[in-house]
Design a protein that fits this description.
By secondary structure, the protein is an alpha/beta fold. It has 2 domains: about 200 residues, Nucleotidyltransferase, domain 5 (2-Layer Sandwich); about 70 residues. It is about 30% helix and about 20% strand. The chain has 10 helices and 12 strands. The strands form 3 sheets. Strands 2-5-4-3-6-7 form a 6-stranded mixed beta sheet, with helices on both faces. The protein starts with a helix and ends in a 7-residue tail after the last strand. About 30% of the residues are buried. The model has no long low-confidence stretch (mean pLDDT about 95).
């Protein structure tokens, strides 16, 4: 039986009127004006991207699906217009692993002869004031390797650069965040994940800002990458506990911190890792300023 809209609305109201039920709505992001802040000029263009790949090795795996959607937003961080969805598949010229088939629902036959439109995809990316992905540290590397002419853009990560716990959310997984906001979508396909991110960016955070505004404020703030060059092996556990990560390529521990705490972090490093009794091989760490044009790359 198909219920009419009034019947559906009444049933939802009854279910949500108690603490025993919560209704999730299927996400449907439609292109066109959103009806928000029409009087405030929308002078910025954002773009959300997502890619499905043959695996998680940035150096050797390949993109098999790329989705892109642009939107216009104003200085208040409100999305006032949403563009059409673009999605491409690409033949990796290798067999997909069973775990990738299960995860994405894509099979080898779905990709035969497919190719990303390099010119269109690159043009879309280069038109944006900011590129957003829910796992920017992975998506940026994969996309810039496939589309090198789109390198060096401003990127923001909706997973790590938004304080979801402070906003009352549990976890950072895209599907789970979306469900907590009252929506569900077809996960693990690039186009659906792009729309999920756009919907989350429209969410109003506890301080009244949109999630998009908070994300831009956070991501656009320069940070400092501290590289603990020349530290002794014996201090690795101290560095790891502090939040430093091991860079296997450079064989060094490093940590990125906000610019305003960089001096304090450097002083901590000098005390915790570079005192003579710690047997360092260098006099101190190296520091590098990072903007959202370098971050996640």
């Amino acid at each position: 039986m198909t219920m009419s809209t009034p019947e559906t609305a009444w049933l939802i109201e009854q279910l949500e009127g108690t603490s025993l039920h919560r209704v999730l709505r299927r996400l449907a992001v439609e292109p066109g004006p959103t009806g928000l802040d029409a009087e405030l000029p929308a002078t910025f263009i954002g773009i959300v991207v997502d890619c499905e790949t043959t695996g998680l090795d940035v150096a050797s795996d390949a993109i098999i699906e790329l989705a892109v959607r642009r939107f216009r937003y104003n200085d208040a961080g409100r999305i006032v217009e949403i563009g059409r969805a673009y999605s491409w598949r690409e033949d990796p010229r290798r067999a997909l692993g069973p775990e990738i088939v299960q995860l994405t629902g894509l099979h080898d036959i779905d990709l035969v002869g497919c190719e990303i439109d390099t010119e269109i995809a690159t043009g879309l990316l280069r038109s944006a004031s900011v590129v957003v992905a829910h796992n920017a540290a992975f998506d940026r590397k994969m996309i810039e390797r496939r589309l090198p002419a789109a390198a060096g853009l401003a990127w923001a990560c909706s997973c790590r650069e938004l304080d979801w716990p402070a906003a009352g959310f549990d976890g950072r997984g895209l599907g789970w965040l979306l469900a907590q906001a009252g929506w569900f979508h077809g996960a693990h396909r690039a186009e659906g994940d792009v729309d999920a991110v756009i919907q989350l960016l429209r969410h109003t955070m506890p301080d009244g800002r949109t999630a998009l505004r908070e994300l831009i404020d956070t991501a656009s703030e320069p940070s400092v990458l501290l590289t603990a060059v020349g530290t002794h092996f014996d201090v690795k556990d101290v560095l790891k506990a502090r939040g430093y990560r091991w860079d296997a390529a450079g064989r060094v521990w490093c940590r990125e911190v906000p610019q305003h705490v960089a001096d304090d972090e450097e002083h901590w490093l000098l005390s915790a890792a570079y005192r003579p009794e710690h047997r360092p091989y260098a006099s101190g760490p190296s520091l590098a300023r990072v903007t959202w044009r370098e971050r996640h790359a």
